[in-house]
Amino acid sequence: MTNQLDTALLVVVLTSAAIYLCLSRELVRSLFGFLLLSNAANLVVLSVSGDPSGRRAASVGEQTSGYVDPLPQALILTAIVIGFSVAAYLTVLIYRTYVDAGDGAALTLEEPPVVTEGGLNKASDTNDLPEAHGTLDDAPQRPTAPSGMQS
Questions:
Q1: What DSSP element (H or E) covers 76?
Q2: Which residue from 92, 104, 86, 75 is spatially nearest to 34, judged by alpha carbons?
Q3: How many CB atoms lie within 10 A of CB 14?
């Protein structure tokens, strides 16, 4: 009973820390939050898989009662591999964002400019907005279908 309570408490702590890190604006912290969350999910699957007696799996021809079910362990192994591959992909995305930005500003998510009735919020910089070139009349015309193909 104590081991199950300790495991449940550990899952709660890992999950709460993971959610806190995932909600952070810094991308590296979000990555660590994802890693913690995947480990917490693996721990949940392991804790609900049955009695942690440590007995080996049953061999062919033996009685199967009292042995540990190997399916949750296989699912956890698969989840570890998937979690690692997603973490590696996120690491590459964060690195590429850092390289493209050229400084550490890309490692944090910034708030978008707020548009009010009077225009842009004073805290935002209007130089960040793209300039409009031309008018709507200058836009390229859509090609029309030949007369025999119209529906």
A1: helix 71-101
A2: 86
A3: 19
Does 29 fall in a domain? Answer: yes
Within a domain: residue 127?
no
What is the domain count for the chain?
1
pLDDT along the chain (151 residues), means of 10: 82 96 90 94 86 60 69 91 95 87 64 65 54 60 65 52
83: domain CATH number is 1.10.287
19, 33 contact by CB (below 8 A):
yes
Beta bridge pairs of residue 26: 108
With respect to residue 139, please indicate whether it lies within any of the assigned structural domains: no
Interval 29-65: pLDDT, tens: 999 999 999 999 999 998 888 766 656 555 666 666 6
* 74 close to 80: Cβ distance less than 8 angstroms: no
User: Cα(16)–Cα(144) distance, rounded to whole angstroms?
Assistant: 56
Interatomic CA distance for residues 4 and 143, integer angstroms? 67
Q: What is the pTM of this model?
A: 0.61
Q: Give the domain range for residue 24.
A: 2-50+70-104
